[in-house]
Amino acid sequence: MLYSVSVVFRQDFVLVEGSHITVGVTAKPVGGDANKEIIKKLAKHFDISSVNVVIKSGHKSREKIIEII
Q1: CA distances from 22 to 31, 34, 42, 55 (A)
Q2: Distance between CA 21 and CA 6 in Å, rounded?
Q3: Of 32, 30, 21, nearest to 63 (Cα)?
Q4: Cα–Cα distance measured from residue 45 to residue 30, given in angstroms and rounded to the nearest whole number
Q5: Cα distances (angstroms) measured from residue 38 to each of 22, 26
Q6: SS3 call for 29
Q7: E strand spans, the chain
Q8: Beta pairing class for 20-25 and 13-17
Q9: How many CA atoms, within 13 angstroms, populate the side-chain half-sphere of residue 40?
Q10: Spelled out in words, what is the top-level CATH class assigned to the domain 2-68?
């Protein structure tokens, strides 16, 4: 399933509203650290393995499309 994800920095939360998710991350967007944190948080939220969470687009943007396999 595909989700639209918005990222908020300097906060720590996951908010799911239908097919839109807002994720707060504390990692800086350097070297992919923020993307890794997003994947880990979504995997934990949906109780799945992190390999089942894939960023389809928006790797360098606050707006992303994420696929949950």
Answers
A1: 21, 14, 10, 14
A2: 6
A3: 21
A4: 23
A5: 10, 10
A6: coil
A7: 2-9, 13-17, 20-25, 53-57, 63-68
A8: antiparallel
A9: 11
A10: alpha beta
Q: Please report the pLDDT score of residue 18 as a whole number.
A: 92
The token pair that represents 5 in the structure block: 């994800």
The model's pLDDT over 27-64, given as tens digits with 9 standing for 90+, comes to 998 999 999 999 999 999 999 999 999 999 999 999 99
Q: 């967007």: which residue's tokens?
A: 29
Q: What span, in angstroms and rounded, lies between the C-alpha atoms of 48 and 30?
A: 25
Output DSSP code: residue 58: -
- State the distance between the two ends of the chain, measured CA to CA, in whole angstroms: 7
CB-based contact 51:58 (threshold 8 Å): no
- At position 23, the amino acid (one-letter code) is V
Instruction: Identify the DSSP state of 52.
Output: G
Per-chain mean pLDDT for the chain: 96
